[in-house]
UniProtKB/TrEMBL annotation:
Protein name: Coproporphyrinogen-III oxidase
Gene: hemN
Known cofactor(s): [4Fe-4S] cluster
Organism: Methylomonas defluvii
PROSITE patterns: RADICAL_SAM
Function: Involved in the heme biosynthesis. Catalyzes the anaerobic oxidative decarboxylation of propionate groups of rings A and B of coproporphyrinogen III to yield the vinyl groups in protoporphyrinogen IX.
Compartment list: Cytoplasm
Alphabetical list of SMART domains matching this protein: Elp3 (SM00729)
One Pfam family this sequence matches: Radical_SAM
GO molecular function, one term: coproporphyrinogen dehydrogenase activity
Subunit record text: Monomer.
Pathway terms, separated by semicolons: Porphyrin-containing compound metabolism; protoporphyrin-IX biosynthesis; protoporphyrinogen-IX from coproporphyrinogen-III (AdoMet route): step 1/1
InterPro entries: Coprogen_oxidase_HemN, Coproporphyrinogen-III_oxidase, Elp3/MiaA/NifB-like_rSAM, HemN_C, rSAM, rSAM_horseshoe, rSAM_sf
Amino acid sequence: MDQSIQFDLDLIKRYDKSGPRYTSYPTALELHEGFGEAEYLQHIQKSNAAGGPLSLYFHIPFCDTVCFYCACNKIVTKNRSHAVPYLDNLCREVAMQGALFDNSRPVNQLHWGGGTPTFLNYQQMKRLMDTTREHFNLHDDDSGEYSIEVDPRETNDLTIAQLRELGFNRISLGLQDFDPDVQKAVNRLQSKEQTFAVLEAARKEGFRSTNIDLIYGLPLQTEQTFARTLEQVLAYAPDRFSIFNYAHMPSRFKTQRQINDADLPTPAVKLEILQMVGQKLTDAGYVYIGMDHFAKPDDELAVAQREGKLYRNFQGYSTHSDCDLVGLGVTSIGRVGDAYMQNYKELDEYDAAISQGKLPVFRGVDLDEDDKLRRAVITQLICHFELTFSKIETEFAINFAEYFASELENLSLMKADGLLDLDADGIQVSTAGRLLIRNICMVFDKYLAQKQQQFSKVI
């Protein structure tokens, strides 16, 4: 499979509009409060009947300091004691959820995100992992894909050794940018020495995959300053890069109001940065997975994409399409059976549900047949940049050309613009269209028209 990209400035300018990132279809905006604990239990029963492995996501919401760009669900505090009651409740939720899932189902994927998971000390992290092992069927042979997000400012050699001992074998390091002026503008002061010491420690301890998170579009960034950051990181050759477009939405995220709008790079500068990133990473031997992600050619994501096995879920790209995803902790989103569900977003509501012995699910959505069909189409496109109509027709017993007549008509305009090739057999996204894969997927999104203003720009 050709995993390259082509930067077409004219196309990007014409198609750069707001749209979803498609970590799910339907997106989380379709979750509603008519779906609660009772509906979740029904889907767990169906899931157990179907069997198969599980994926677990744990949300640790605490951060020591606030990064002004952040749009995550977090609680900023320097008081470490705030984690104690949360951990108590999280362990109770693990026990409640674990009792509902068939214990013969192995946990092939596990991820701790945040916030800053290493806000917890070693004893607290060990307690959470021990509780998880008690109530879910975790692998003991290091064959699972168990990952954690870390802030290098909150991590040292000892922490990395402890995380490896607990069973983690993949690690993602938050960085964003090394430029001192940019770091000051977003309130995230982080040295190269801190960052690379953690990366080297992870390799020494035998972590199988290392990822670096960067963000382009932050205040005071230029192509030249971001290139310096990228070159410094490339010298250490992490297995993967996640290079996100900063979405400045201060009306939705209060902390972003502390960013000076006048300091933000212009759209033209952001495009220059994006083009430079694609060129440098390609020259360094990385392949474009899609949606801001690059990986070495021998990385599991790159291999899965070439083999047609790549998947996408609420944590991003994944090799575990066969797993039902159980979300644990405040705000966590899961996918069990043919439904998505989310825990309470506010800590007091989450606490209240747990204290009453109830699952903290407060909203969700049941997928109908049309949702499942469109999800299959969008997932295939966003993961593999191609779609064979006959496969969809066989799986869903439809005539693709009839069912998606209006969508195919819209795609014909994209074909004329060079984003894709379209014929009676299927869709093949061009190298120039891959950076705009969200636009192509949006054609198949029946919910999009009334929700578009709530999404960030695609580029």
